[in-house]
Design brief:
With about 200 residues, the protein is an alpha+beta fold. It is about 65% helix and about 15% strand. It is built from 3 helices and 6 strands; from the N terminus they run H-H-H-E-E-E-E-E-E. Strands 1-4-5 form a 3-stranded antiparallel β-sheet. Strands 2-6-3 form a 3-stranded mixed β-sheet, with no helix packed on it.
């Protein structure tokens, strides 16, 4: 009986060791699997973060491209509009030379006290020509008496004058014109300057 008991105890002890060994191996496998899953999750998170960054970069590029395209469309629309508005600019400049000649002819006739029918006819022609130009957006402007403005006037003569403020336009040798909101040509003007102080002399 005693011998049988010992054999039984040895058998239980062996089974216990086998179970213990099996449990340890299972735990190692589970730990290894858990580590593998964690590593995969970590890799997936890194990939996701990378893809999100790529998507953000592509989205930014798309938004920039859309904005650039919209600006391009606006620029082309404006250029087309300007082309239509100012297409006759060179032609109008040539016509204004005729206007200048007609105005000079009328002025000379008045200075010579010639108010005949020919002068009156020229005045009528000039009036109709200016009206036609106005219909196409051409308008003249007066410079005499104004302060000199380099954006509208071109000074060809500068004279000393104690009767006017410095930089005052006192004469106009050629009238200035606008084509709609654009300066077609500046006025050619005579501008005053301060005379030298007599006390300094």
């Amino acid at each position: 009986m005693k011998g049988e008991k010992n054999d039984f105890e040895v058998e239980i002890s062996t089974e216990g060791k086998e179970k213990s060994s099996a449990t340890s191996a299972d735990l190692e496998k589970e730990e290894s699997a858990s580590k593998g899953k964690k590593s995969k999750v970590k890799d997936l998170k890194a990939d996701l973060k990378e893809k999100e960054a790529e998507i953000k970069a592509l989205n930014d590029t798309l938004l920039r491209s859309q904005a650039e395209f919209e600006n391009y469309k606006k620029r082309i629309t404006k250029e087309k509009s300007d082309l239509l508005k100012y297409a006759n600019e060179e032609l109008v400049k040539e016509v204004l030379r005729t206007v200048d000649n007609l105005e000079m002819a009328i002025e000379h006739a008045r200075e010579a006290n010639q108010s005949d029918s020919i002068t009156e006819g020229v005045e009528i022609i000039l009036k109709h020509l200016l009206q036609s130009l106005e219909r196409f957006g051409v308008n003249g402007f007066t410079a005499v008496g104004e302060k000199f403005d380099p954006n509208r006037h071109e000074a060809v003569i500068q004279v000393e004058s104690a009767d006017h403020e410095p930089n005052t336009v006192i004469a106009e040798s050629q009238k200035g014109y606008f084509l709609r909101d654009r300066l077609l040509r500046p006025s050619l003007v005579t501008v005053t300057k301060m005379p030298p102080d007599e006390s300094e002399e």
